[in-house]
Amino acid sequence: LTSGYSYTTLDTDLSGSRVFEPTVPTTPLAGFLGLTGGSALREYVFTLNLQAMPWDNFTIVPSIRAQKQDINGMSIFANTYPVGPPEDLSAQNENDYLEVSGRLEARYTGLTNWVFYARGDWVQGDGDQMEQQIALATGALQLLRDTDYTRFTQQYTAGLNWYPVRKLNLSGQYYHKTRDNDYDHITRVSTLGGLYPAFLQTQDFETDDLNVRINWR
């Protein structure tokens, strides 16, 4: 039985200016001027693993991992999009999520030079993301986004390794993976045109993968 814990803190400072040449001559310059700001990240990770051998040549390894991450940032800059003098803006963002993942793996080594294995992986994540942009001169709210999201991923894998001679091994593996993302946009205000970036409501992914590998040393 093993366990581990880690804590990470990261602080970032931002500054600078950047102007992009327009692709169409009549289009105003795009970019930002006089950017100042920064961001902070706090991350907590906990792991727990167990290796059990209930029978000879058969091993079961269950494990669990929990990760919590908090990110926030702030910046002040002048936008070069409008026709006329640059517009001073203030932007803030917060992103918090908790993700819990589990794995159950089984291995069998009862046949000489063969290893058979199967495992299941599950990940459940929940988080919240907030974005806000304000015009400093007028106090007008240009963008406000508050989104709750959930993510669930599961993957089932089966495979084998064969070692016919000392310098050669062959491997085959198949896995089926699904991922479901759901977004609940509690607040979504934009005077900048369109609903980007808060326009996705759900995403569903499904993957089937079969691979064969040969290694020779």
The largest pleated sheet is described as:
9 strands, antiparallel
How many beta strands in the DSSP annotation? Answer: 9
- Rg from Cα: 25 Å
Low-confidence stretches: none
Give the number of helices. Answer: 0
Overall 3D shape: elongated
Order of helices and strands: EEEEEEEEE
What's the end-to-end separation, in Å? Answer: 34 Å
Mean pLDDT figure:
91
Which secondary-structure class do the elements indicate? mainly beta
Tell me the strand percentage band. over 45%
Fold and architecture overview:
By secondary structure, this protein is an all-beta fold. Helix content is 0%, strand content 79%. The chain contains no helices and nine strands. The chain has strands at residues 2-20, 30-49, 52-55, 58-79, 87-108, 114-135, 141-165, 168-190, 202-216. Strands 1, 2, 3, 4, 5, 6, 7, 8 and 9 form a nine-stranded antiparallel sheet that branches. Strand 7 and strand 8 form a beta hairpin. The protein is elongated, with a radius of gyration of 25 Å. The mean pLDDT is 91.
Task: Describe the SSE topology.
Elements: E1 2-20, E2 30-49, E3 52-55, E4 58-79, E5 87-108, E6 114-135, E7 141-165, E8 168-190, E9 202-216
Antiparallel strand pairs: 1-2, 2-4, 3-4, 4-5, 5-6, 6-7, 7-8, 8-9
Which key features would you list for this structure?
217 residues; mainly beta; nine-stranded antiparallel β-sheet; 9 strands
Short recap of the structure:
With 217 residues, the protein is mainly β.
